[in-house]
């Protein structure tokens, strides 16, 4: 009887080792007019670092902005560059930056967001995560890109 109980306990522990875990990130906004042409604007993220290491993470939430534009998203797990203006890091593409997704606002001002990548996972593991955006098409106009209900969905290392 005792070996069966031990076997069940070990099975439960192994089954839980890849259980999904969520880390909420605070909502944030980026003033699109502050982004310079051809630059990637980064914001340092605030969240509680997970208590254990991660194998992978994806970032889910929603975005709101005007229609007629598209953005590319980036992640960095170290300071992405040294140029900082009004709380935003304005960077050129460099090895510290990884592309993690895109959003196209052609049909609706609110879009679902799903981002993933190694630097995103590393940034959540270390507690140092910068999310960047670059305007790919459309005009630089006054407006705020709103990131809401952002949650990192993660799998724990075995």
Could you characterize what this model shows?
15% of the residues lie in helices and 47% in strands. The protein has 158 residues and is α+β, with helices and mostly antiparallel strands. A hairpin with a 2-residue loop joins β6 (84-85) and β7 (88-91).
Question: Can you lay out the helices and strands and say which pair or pack?
Answer:
Blueprint: H1 2-16, E1 20-24, E2 28-31, E3 40-44, E4 54-64, E5 69-76, E6 84-85, E7 88-91, E8 98-105, E9 110-116, H2 118-126, E10 130-137, E11 144-156
Antiparallel strand pairs: 1-11, 2-11, 3-7, 3-10, 4-9, 4-11, 5-8, 5-10, 6-7
Notable traits:
158 residues; alpha+beta; 6-stranded antiparallel β-sheet; 5-stranded antiparallel β-sheet; 2 helices; 11 strands; disordered N terminus
Shape: globular
Distance between the termini: 27 Å
Give the % helix: 10-25%
Overall pLDDT, averaged? 80
Q: What is the helix/strand order? A: HEEEEEEEEEHEE
C-alpha-based Rg, rounded: 19 Å
- Report the strand count: 11
Proportion of strand residues: over 45%
- What class do helices, strands and sheet pairing give? alpha+beta
Low-confidence stretches: 1-18
Strand order of the largest sheet: 6-7-3-10-5-8
Annotation field: number of helices: 2
Largest sheet: 6 strands, antiparallel
């Amino acid at each position: 009887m005792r070996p069966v109980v031990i076997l069940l306990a070990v099975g439960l522990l192994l089954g839980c080792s890849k259980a999904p875990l969520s880390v909420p990130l605070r909502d944030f906004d980026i003033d699109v007019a502050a982004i310079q042409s051809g630059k990637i604007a980064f914001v340092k993220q605030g969240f509680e670092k997970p208590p254990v290491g991660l194998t992978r993470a994806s970032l889910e939430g929603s975005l709101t902005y005007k229609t007629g534009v598209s953005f590319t998203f980036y992640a960095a797990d170290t300071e992405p560059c040294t140029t900082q203006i009004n709380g935003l890091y304005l960077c050129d593409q460099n090895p510290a930056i990884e592309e993690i997704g895109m959003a196209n606002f052609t049909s609706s001002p609110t879009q679902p967001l799903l981002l993933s990548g190694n630097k995103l996972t590393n940034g959540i593991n270390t507690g140092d995560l910068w999310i960047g955006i670059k305007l790919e098409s459309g005009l630089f106009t006054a407006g705020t890109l709103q990131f809401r209900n952002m949650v990192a969905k993660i799998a724990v290392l075995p």
